[in-house]
């Protein structure tokens, strides 16, 4: 039994390359296996009524990888959607994307746009792909857009606060993540959702993404269920002691 399911879960899916290297097979095979994990985790998220799932699939820094690997990763959204979009639709999933889409190959953008358009009325799990996404890039993009609106007199400087600024981020209408999961053993953010993770609970595992199972996912949810979130305040017991 899992209590207190997070409304929004963000995942850094790390470890595909090492999973493949351990088996003496090309890194591509690790990414391919990573897609199977995506399928199983989405199913679990639907089962437990998670409202938003945001998956870090390709960062603004991932362009530094060898071109064949970049090309391979950027074909995965289309391949995934070609196979699973009907099932996702049947489960009322709404597809979204965050990141700078303009620099992505046409086939990636086209497949995503089709999925976004054809699921926009759905009211089930919102599944977001972070593609060509970088937290700093997103903040700069937002600052520029907001500065333009300030210049054009569309907003006034004294109205600018956290809420107003958040509207300019790629995540504009999304709640902030309650839980961040990173697989693959590293304990860093790698430029993911820098603004949005301010009060998010973090959960790290050494399990490599292709081995990340429903069981491991449930461990993360159970652990989250026990956490007390104070958002910089004090919990009720401390409040009673202090008063
Ligand atoms: C990081 O592992 C993983 C990536 C950069 C790619 C992630 C992509 C997927 C899991 C597939 C996405 C699925 C869809 C449907 C778009 P790494 O290669 O850095 O692993 P390593 O740290 O072991 O080298």
Strand and helix map with partners:
Elements: E1 8-12, H1 16-22, H2 27-47, E2 52-59, H3 67-90, E3 94-98, H4 106-119, E4 126-133, H5 135-151, H6 162-166, E5 179-182, E6 201-204, H7 214-226, H8 236-242
Parallel strand pairs: 1-2, 1-5, 2-4, 3-4, 5-6
Helix pairs in contact: 1-2, 2-3, 3-4
CATH architecture: 3-Layer(aba) Sandwich
Alpha-carbon Rg, integer:
19 Å
Please give the domain count. Answer: 1
- Could you name the CATH homologous superfamily? Decaprenyl diphosphate synthase-like
The level of helicity is 40-55%
Order of helices and strands: EHHEHEHEHHEEHH
The general outline is globular
For this structure, what is the CATH class? Alpha Beta
Structural class of the helices, strands and pairings? alpha/beta
Average pLDDT = 95
How many β-strand runs? 6
Bound molecules: farnesyl diphosphate
Low-confidence parts lasting 5 or more residues at pLDDT below 50? Answer: none
What proportion strand?
5-15%
How many H/I helical runs?
A: 8
Distance between the termini: 35 Å
Q: Major sheet: size, sense and barrel closure? A: 6 strands, parallel
CATH topology: the name is Undecaprenyl pyrophosphate synthetase
Strand order of the largest sheet: 3-4-2-1-5-6
Describe this structure in words.
This protein has 243 residues and is an alpha/beta fold. 44% of the residues lie in helices and 14% in strands. The chain has a single domain (8-134, 176-242), classed as Decaprenyl diphosphate synthase-like (Undecaprenyl pyrophosphate synthetase, 3-Layer(aba) Sandwich). It has a 6-stranded parallel beta sheet, with helices on both faces. The longest helix is centred in the first third of the chain and has 24 residues, at 67-90. The mean pLDDT is 95. Residues 13-18, 31, 34-35, 38, 57, 62, 73, 76-77, 80, 129, 184, 209 line the site of farnesyl diphosphate.
């Amino acid at each position: 039994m899992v209590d207190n399911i997070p409304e929004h879960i963000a995942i850094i899916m790390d470890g595909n390359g090492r999973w493949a290297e351990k088996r003496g097979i090309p890194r591509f095979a690790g990414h391919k296996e990573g897609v199977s994990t995506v399928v199983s985790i989405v199913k679990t998220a639907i089962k437990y009524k998670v409202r938003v799932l945001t998956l870090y699939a390709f960062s603004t820094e991932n362009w530094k990888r060898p071109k064949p690997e970049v090309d391979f990763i950027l074909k995965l959204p289309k391949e995934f959607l070609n196979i699973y979009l009907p099932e996702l639709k049947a489960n009322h999933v709404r597809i979204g994307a965050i990141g700078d889409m303009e620099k992505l190959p046409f086939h990636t953008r086209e497949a995503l746009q089709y999925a976004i358009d054809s699921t926009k009325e759905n009211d089930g799990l919102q599944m977001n792909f972070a593609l060509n996404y970088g937290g700093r890039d997103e903040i700069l993009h937002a600052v520029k857009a907001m500065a333009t609106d300030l210049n054009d007199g569309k907003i006034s400087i004294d109205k600018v606060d956290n809420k107003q600024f958040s509207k300019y981020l790629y995540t504009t209408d999304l709640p902030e993540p309650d839980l961040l999961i990173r697989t693959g053993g590293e304990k860093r953010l790698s430029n993911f959702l820098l603004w949005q993770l301010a009060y998010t609970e973090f959960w790290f595992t050494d399990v490599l993404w292709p081995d990340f199972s429903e069981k491991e996912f449930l461990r993360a949810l159970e652990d989250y269920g026990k956490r007390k979130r104070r958002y910089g305040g004090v919990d009720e017991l401390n409040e009673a002691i202090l008063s």
